[in-house]
Design brief:
It contains 6 helices and 14 strands. With 282 residues, it is of the alpha/beta class. Strand 2 (83-89) and strand 3 (95-99) form a beta hairpin. Helix 2 packs parallel to helix 4 (135-141). The termini are far apart. It binds zinc ion.
Length: 282
């Protein structure tokens, strides 16, 4: 057969050379093994505090770069979609706002209880399952806490098909909206004011909550834009051009140092995404 034609022409290797090579290999392996084990154990110790190894011990970014008496936020990463739940508050108050409580509500509730914080509102940037998964548990724990969402995404809260959870076999529902918001609204809660920017395209009723009162403006952008990427638009109500257009007209017109806190992945800024986001061009 063609593929074996060259096989007989391979150079013969003397048996003594083979055994010598084997001996050298075993010796090197014996020397390398302790170092390998040390590296492995070190990595395990480092990763033991990492969410990839022990999901229940995920890191809480409790000391953020933006932390002032006027505004501070914590990030809780909820598995399995590594969705960012944010807890925003003033430094001098015990109430807070929970933005997009995700699919691990016990982590969120545990954090709130440890910090002795009471949620004054749940703000949903949009109605996809990974961003509303904790609504029900928070509402059960704090029944007075209103659920707030963009008007056109409100129906997703109670419809597992529309909030896409049915596709993952979860069939998740949230309590219905207590209040809905529209583009240009200002929603005030826990001593914080959030300007509402409607940016459809990833989800038809997607809104961004912009806080401008602190040391730096901060926008909770959900799945509109990520560090180096933008939200998916291949959903029934998705629209790529609409999304990119909204990013340009509503986000890229903000000051370059505006901090963007996405629904997944690390924080970024308007300036950074204007410079380097390859997906944000029209
Ligand atoms: Zn989404």
């Amino acid at each position: 057969m063609q593929k074996y034609r060259d096989f007989p022409s391979l150079p013969m290797v003397p048996r003594s050379t083979l055994s010598q090579n084997l001996l050298v290999g075993i010796t090197m392996f014996s020397f390398a093994m302790p170092f390998y084990l040390i590296v492995e154990i070190t990595l395990y110790v480092i990763c033991a505090n990492n969410r990839y190894i022990l999901p229940n011990r995920m890191p809480l970014e409790e000391s953020n770069s933006v932390s002032s008496p006027d505004f501070r936020y914590d990030t809780i990463i909820c598995l399995p979609f590594e969705q960012n739940t944010y807890i925003a508050r003033r430094g001098d108050r015990a109430d807070c706002v929970v933005i997009d409580p995700g699919l691990e509500p016990e982590k969120i509730i545990g954090h709130l209880e440890r910090q002795a914080l009471t949620p004054a509102a749940v703000l949903n940037t949009h109605g996809h399952g990974d961003h509303i998964g904790g609504n029900a548990a928070l509402k059960q724990r704090w029944p007075e806490c209103p659920v707030v969402i963009g008007t056109r995404d409100a129906e997703k809260l109670t419809d597992p098909q529309k909030n896409l959870s049915a596709g993952f076999g979860i069939s998740l529902v949230s309590p219905p909206a207590d209040a809905t918001v529209e583009d240009g609204d200002v929603y005030e809660s826990a001593g914080l004011k959030f300007k509402v920017l409607a940016i459809p395209g990833h989800s038809i009723g997607h809104v961004v909550f912009l806080h401008e009162g602190g040391a730096a403006a901060i926008a909770f952008v959900g799945d509109v834009i990520f560090s180096g990427s933008i939200g998916r638009t291949d959903f029934p109500d998705g629209d790529h051009r609409q999304l990119v257009s909204g990013i340009h007209s509503k986000l890229f017109t903000l000051s370059d140092d505006t901090i963007l806190l996405p629904g997944h992945g690390p924080a970024t800024t308007v300036g950074e995404e204007k410079r380097s986001n390859p997906y944000a061009g029209l």
